[in-house]
Design a protein that fits this description.
Blueprint lengths: L5 H10 L1 H21 L6 H33 L1
Helix pairs in contact: 1-2, 2-3
């Protein structure tokens, strides 16, 4: 994620349970999406799964962004 500095990511991965969980969730959804996107065609069930995975990734990314903003704000003060 381009908004996430490596040193901040490392610190949050060690210290922030929700951040770590969201990063793992985002990564797992991204991996599964990659698997689905490599298929020549998707079943109806797989198409639905693809949509849900995209939503999962977006929700995780939005919350990760929020956590990063909070951590950055605290670091400034």
């Amino acid at each position: 994620m381009d908004f996430l500095r490596p040193e901040l990511q490392d610190r949050l991965m060690k210290e922030h349970f929700e951040f770590r969980k969201l990063m793992e969730e985002h990564r797992a959804a991204d991996t599964r999406l990659g698997d689905l996107q490599r298929k020549p065609s998707l079943s109806a069930k797989e198409s639905l799964e693809e949509v849900e995975l995209k939503k999962t990734k977006l929700r995780a990314k939005e919350r990760i962004y929020s956590i990063v903003q909070e951590a950055s704000h605290r670091a400034e003060h």
